[in-house]
From TrEMBL:
It comes from Pseudomonas emilianonis. This is 50S ribosome-binding GTPase. InterPro entries: GTP-bd, P-loop_NTPase. Coiled coil: none annotated. It comes from the Bacteria. Residues 42-146 form the G domain.
């Protein structure tokens, strides 16, 4: 399923819990679904009222559509289609409270922020703090400083002064200066730019700084136009508009909340380990396939029938599978040992005291009265880790990889046919005047065969090892999930909602496009 569609399905399932804590949950989810369906980047213009936001929108549109005035005129969110994006004109900072709340809510659902401030507001404390709040939240931010001076020297002083204000604020508040240095800031006379656009006067546009702005602004937008970036931004919107508000309402200290929280944290950690292990496995397979390329090429040159060709490929793939097996055993043993030590440390036990004890004896050493005294240790979790250790000799990788390749011959039939076609070209190449052309054709087809075969073997091995990793982690998660289910059975509705909401958040966060 496309991850955007998956988002919509999960949001629909979230309505029951969310409605218990947010009166407007249904409306929020409906707005999120509409935004997902729209699949457009929403750029919110944000800043003090009368800073020039509406005027800038008119400059971008090239027509006077946004209402402009010296007093706060925008009391709701106004949308404008522009260059495949949605521009959002919102009430300003320091506008009437009801109007500002509209901006605050919209800020949660914006993909990108175009922050506009006036020359006289460049050192206003509340404006600077708003900018740094967005920086701290890692929100994509582009700043336009709206100036009135026409003297180039004065404009340069304005830019230097604003840069110094940002740096001083970062140093005073121990904020990484690189975040300020990476912030795109453009100076522009927005009123002159709007006149230039509306009246079609190139001189005004050049004088206003609009041309420099539009080039840099479009370059900045390009970083967020891919589907992958839009997916990432969409999760951020869901998190700000729904996940975080509901979590803030239901998170709290309840009898089982702390235990559920610890299990949820462990499950999240396992999910990260699982993904990292699969990524590492993919890189290892890719590296080994590259190393095996000469042998795959030799198979093309030496094998004369499909059976010998398949056997030669199986020998190469089997060698890689054995290396994968050894690597995976080592990685899982290291991870499991770290988890056992973490359990012991959490219970106040020094893992070094048991470092020389065989794992088969560890439970005996800790059983009985000792477990009763060590309330911080979960015997089921420790037992499952020790039992899992006995399964870490992974003979099934070989069988799993061969099982995955049972249908390989059928999938590889076109490749086998290509081998015979190349052989026929070799045999038929008799005319001298055609020899160069045929040699070239053979070389191209040979390269194509090597690429297709390498990709096929790589895909089968990656699929096999990823399935195995998933299976092993399912076994490792079982005792935690069983503990979680037991706790949920005794927990109140609020505690269940808290745990389920964290699970929903994890699921949403893990969605991605298939590789």
């Amino acid at each position: 399923m496309n991850p955007f569609e998956h988002y919509k399905t999960l949001l629909a399932s979230a309505c029951g819990i969310a409605s218990r804590y947010l009166p407007d949950a249904s409306q929020r989810i409906e707005q999120l679904v509409e935004q997902i369906d729209e699949r457009k980047v929403h750029v919110m213009l944000f800043g003090a009222y009368n800073a020039g936001k509406s005027t800038l929108i008119n400059a971008l549109l090239g027509e006077e559509r946004a209402v402009v005035g010296d007093i706060p005129t925008t009391d709701a969110v106004h949308r404008y289609d522009w260059d495949g994006h949605i521009l959002l004109d919102t009430p300003g900072i320091n506008a009437p409270i009801a109007h500002e709340e509209v901006s605050t809510e919209q800020l949660k659902r914006a993909n990108l922020i175009l922050f506009v401030l006036r020359q006289e507001d460049q050192d206003a404390q509340n404006i600077i703090e708003r900018i740094f709040t967005l920086i701290a939240q890692r929100r994509p931010l582009f700043v336009v400083l709206n100036y009135e001076d026409s003297d180039p020297a004065a404009i340069e002083r304005i830019q230097s002064s604003f840069s110094l204000t940002l740096l001083n604020h970062a140093r005073k508040n121990a904020i990484d200066e690189r975040l300020v240095q990476q912030l795109p800031v453009i100076l522009m006379n927005i009123r002159t730019a709007s006149r230039g656009r509306l009246e079609g006067k190139a001189k005004l546009l050049e004088h206003s700084g609009f041309e420099a702005f539009i080039v840099r602004f479009k370059q900045w937008l390009q970083h967020f136009d891919s589907e992958q970036q839009l997916l990432k931004q969409t999760f951020g919107i869901i998190e700000r508009a729904l996940l975080a508000p509901v979590a803030n309402c239901i998170d709290g200290e309840t009898p089982h909340a702390q235990q559920l929280g610890a299990i949820d944290a462990q499950l999240e950690h396992m999910a990260r380990q699982q993904q990292q292990l699969k990524n590492s496995a993919r890189h290892l397979v890719r590296r080994e396939i590259l190393a095996a390329r000469p042998a795959i090429e030799a198979a093309l040159d030496q094998c004369t029938d499909p059976a010998s060709l398949t056997r030669a490929l199986e020998v190469q793939a089997q060698g890689i599978a054995e290396k994968l097996q050894q690597w995976l055993e080592g990685e899982l043993q290291s991870m499991r040992k770290a988890q056992i030590n973490e359990l012991l440390s959490g219970a106040g036990i020094d893992p070094k005291l048991y470092s020389n004890i065989e794992e088969s004896e560890l439970l005996d050493k800790l059983s009985g009265p000792i477990f009763a005294q060590l309330k911080g240790i979960n015997q089921d979790h420790l037992t499952s880790l020790l039992v899992l250790g006995r399964k870490l000799k992974i003979p099934m990788l070989k069988g799993r990889w061969l099982s995955t390749l049972q249908k390989w011959a059928g999938r590889a039939a076109p490749v086998v046919q290509l081998v015979f076609a190349i052989a026929e070209i070799f045999m038929a190449a008799r005319s001298e005047e055609k020899e160069n052309e045929r040699n070239h054709s053979r070389a191209l087809q040979r390269i194509q065969w090597i690429e297709e075969t390498s990709a096929e073997v790589e895909s089968a091995l990656v699929q096999s090892v990823c399935e195995l990793i998933d299976q092993l982690f399912r076994e490792q998660r079982k005792p935690y999930e069983e503990s979680r289910n037991a706790l949920q059975g005794a927990a109140s509705q609020r505690e269940k909602d808290c745990s389920d909401w964290h699970e929903l958040t994890r699921t949403l966060q893990a969605l991605e496009f298939p590789a």
